[in-house]
């Protein structure tokens, strides 16, 4: 994921941008339809300077943070609580599996009717995007904790919730974080699509507005911002996962 | 420290096991793989279901859950908490039992000192050697002052010199702390060196309990002698270490070269299948030849 990890990664990105720039300048296609990279950067600066991009960006960011925050927190809680016992595990696992199988955007029509077209809509959709996978990752992470470790913890006096908090969750943490790393990106994508379809603000709307006035450069500028945000979130979780593994001496 | 009594323990792996371990005694449980040794320890810790009764100092603990039995358990895999430092691992049981911070500090330091691992306090388990991990697991089990200590083949993954060091370490600890201990192994040397009494567990049943001498010189059943794999057992008159791994042993009028661990050889077992009677000695590789 990380560009800086290898010079080859950085070089390939730079090469792709250069190829894009040259192709757009010399291809027999109008630059309005296929703008060069420099044109997209110009559009990005323009959108930022006008205050339009920051306004919509903040909206999207808030929806992602709230929806993803709620979904992943509840996912970890449900996963951890149900992993502890055979019965709850057996009951919850198939439900989570079913929810996981539904793409989050499939909830949009239903939630439009249930919660309306307000701020609750993207938050609810992003929640449904984050909750099942996080619960699933926590559940599988918790179940993979060494049985002997749990037995020793019991003989040392840990039981029930304390056992989960002190041993099960910390042991499952790398597993949970690698799930969150993927799901943070998904949350941005899902929010973007919801905004395209049903919202009157946010990056998704900005892209749709640009499309209606044939501003391909602005569409691509919004896409770049989306990609960068997505990348930044995943990177943060990856850093966290790595630092935990390194601290424990396993990285 | 309490005595431990097992009365007619039965479950999926054990069939009517009874055993007495005296106050502060170390009893070794020996047996082949799959004999039920680990299950026996799990029964004492309350970690698996069973019929029969476990008594600490004559009081049944069958209804006491593992969290409250006060057992120190060192499993074969050691199962150190990899997300905690050595200090936190050793403090875990004390924290769970609600000791105050000052008391925890004192007891953890004491356990670290006892196991000579004070310098490792801030390390995570992944950064420890096999022998160090071993010591941490034992310190963790001992810190909360358990009523009974259960050690499940704790030396399995160690090289032979670390094993030797850990054997003497356990001997020292048991005499210093005086904790009632059940020690599971399939290594005869460990059993002989560590314990006054050995219980031989085969196929879920205890076939013999006695001193190492008793067990080795008069195996109670054919299964015991088969498990021990000891035949033609000879007393040695004198022995002299000739190199790190070999000793010259005077035995039944013969001088025999025998493998040793740098220690005096007192008894020698000669498996019959290793004895070859031939007219001509061919090639090398013969350890001892007699004409």
Give the beta-strand count of chain A.
0
Q: State the order of secondary-structure elements of chain B, H for helix, E for strand.
A: EEEHEEHEHHHEHEHEEHHEEEEE
* DSSP E strands of chain B, number: 15
CATH class wording of chain A: Mainly Alpha
Distance between the termini of chain A: 17 Å
- Please name the two chains that share the biggest interface, counting residues whose Cβ lies under 8 Å from a Cβ on the partner chain: A-B, 22 and 29 residues
Terminal CA distance of chain B: 57 Å
What is the oligomer described by this structure?
heterodimer
Low-confidence stretches of chain A: none
Structural class of chain B: alpha/beta
Q: N-to-C SSE series of chain A? A: HHHHHHHHHH
The dominant shape of chain A is globular
Percent of residues in helices of chain A: over 70%
Number of helices of chain A: 10
Name the helicity range of chain B: 25-40%
How much beta of chain B, percentage-wise?
A: 25-35%
Brief summary of the model shown:
Chain A is mostly helical and 251 residues long.
Task: Describe the protein.
The complex is a heterodimer of chains A (251) and B (291). Chain A has 251 residues and is an all-alpha fold. Chain A has a single domain (39-250), classed as MetI-like fold (Orthogonal Bundle). Chain A is built from ten helices and no strands. Chain A starts with 6 loop residues before the first helix and ends with a helix. The model of chain A has no long low-confidence stretch (mean pLDDT 91). Chain B is α/β, with parallel strands linked by helices and 291 residues long. Chain B has helices at residues 37-45, 66-69, 86-96, 101-114, 130-143, 160-177, 188-194, 212-217, 222-228, and strands at 4-10, 15-21, 26-30, 51-56, 59-60, 71-74, 148-152, 180-185, 197-202, 205-210, 233-235, 238-241, 246-251, 254-259, 267-269. In chain B, the strands form four sheets. A six-stranded mixed beta sheet of chain B has the order 6-7-8-3-9-10, with helices on both faces. In chain B, a hairpin with a 4-residue loop joins β12 and β13. In chain B, α3 (86-96) packs parallel to α5. The N and C termini of chain B lie far apart (57 Å). Classes of the chains: A mainly alpha (251), B alpha/beta (291). Chains A and B meet through α7 and α8 of A and α2, β6 and α3 of B.
């Amino acid at each position: 994921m990380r560009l800086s990890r290898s010079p080859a990664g950085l070089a390939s990105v730079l090469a792709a941008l250069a190829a894009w720039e040259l192709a757009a300048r010399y291809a027999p296609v109008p630059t309005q339809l296929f703008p060069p990279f420099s044109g997209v950067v110009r559009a990005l600066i323009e959108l930022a300077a006008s205050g339009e991009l920051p306004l919509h960006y903040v909206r999207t960011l808030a929806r992602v943070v709230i929806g993803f925050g709620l979904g992943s927190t509840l996912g970890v809680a449900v996963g951890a609580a149900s992993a502890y016992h055979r019965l709850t595990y057996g009951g919850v696992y198939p439900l989570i599996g079913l929810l996981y199988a539904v793409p989050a955007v499939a909830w949009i029509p239903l939630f439009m009717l249930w919660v309306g077209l307000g701020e609750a809509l993207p938050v609810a959709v992003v929640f449904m995007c984050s909750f099942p996978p996080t619960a699933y990752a926590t559940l599988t992470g918790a179940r993979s904790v060494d049985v002997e470790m749990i037995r020793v913890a019991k003989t040392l006096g840990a039981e029930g919730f304390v056992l989960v908090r002190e041993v099960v969750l910390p042991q499952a943490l790398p597993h949970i974080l690698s799930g969150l790393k993927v799901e943070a990106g998904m949350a941005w994508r899902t929010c973007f699509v919801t905004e395209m379809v049903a919202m009157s603000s946010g990056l998704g709307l900005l892209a749709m507005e640009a499309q209606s006035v044939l501003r391909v450069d602005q569409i691509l500028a919004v896409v770049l911002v989306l990609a960068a945000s997505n990348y930044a979130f995943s990177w943060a979780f990856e850093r966290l996962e790595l630092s935990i593994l390194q601290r424990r001496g396993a990285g | 420290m309490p005595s431990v009594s097992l009365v007619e323990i039965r479950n999926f792996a054990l069939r009517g096991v009874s055993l007495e371990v005296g106050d502060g005694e170390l009893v070794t449980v020996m047996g082949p793989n799959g004999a039920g040794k680990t299950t026996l320890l799990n029964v004492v810790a309350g970690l698996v279901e069973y019929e029969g009764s476990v008594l600490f100092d004559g009081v049944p603990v069958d209804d006491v859950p593992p969290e409250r039995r006060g057992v120190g358990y060192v499993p074969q895999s050691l199962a150190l908490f990899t997300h905690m430092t050595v200090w936190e691992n050793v403090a875990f049981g004390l924290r769970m039992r609600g000791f105050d911070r000052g008391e925890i500090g004192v007891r953890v330091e004491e356990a670290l000192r006892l196991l000579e691992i004070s310098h490792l306090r801030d390390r995570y388990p992944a950064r420890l050697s096999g022998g160090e991990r071993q010591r941490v697991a034992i310190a963790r089990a001992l810190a909360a002052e358990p009523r009974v200590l259960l050690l499940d083949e704790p030396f399995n993954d160690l090289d032979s010199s670390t094993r030797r060091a850990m054997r003497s370490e356990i001997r020292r600890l048991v005499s210093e702390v005086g904790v009632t201990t059940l020690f599971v192994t399939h290594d005869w040397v460990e059993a002989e060196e560590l314990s006054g009494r050995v219980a031989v567990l085969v196929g879920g049943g205890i076939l013999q309990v006695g001193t190492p001498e008793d067990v080795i010189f008069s195996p109670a059943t054919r299964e015991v002698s088969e498990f021990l794999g000891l035949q033609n057992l000879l007393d040695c008159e004198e022995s002299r270490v000739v190199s790190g791994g070999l000793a010259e042993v005077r035995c039944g009028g013969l001088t025999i070269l025998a493998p040793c661990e740098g220690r005096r050889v007192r008894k020698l077992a000669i498996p019959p299948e290793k004895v070859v009677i031939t007219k001509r000695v061919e090639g090398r590789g013969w350890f001892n030849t007699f004409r």
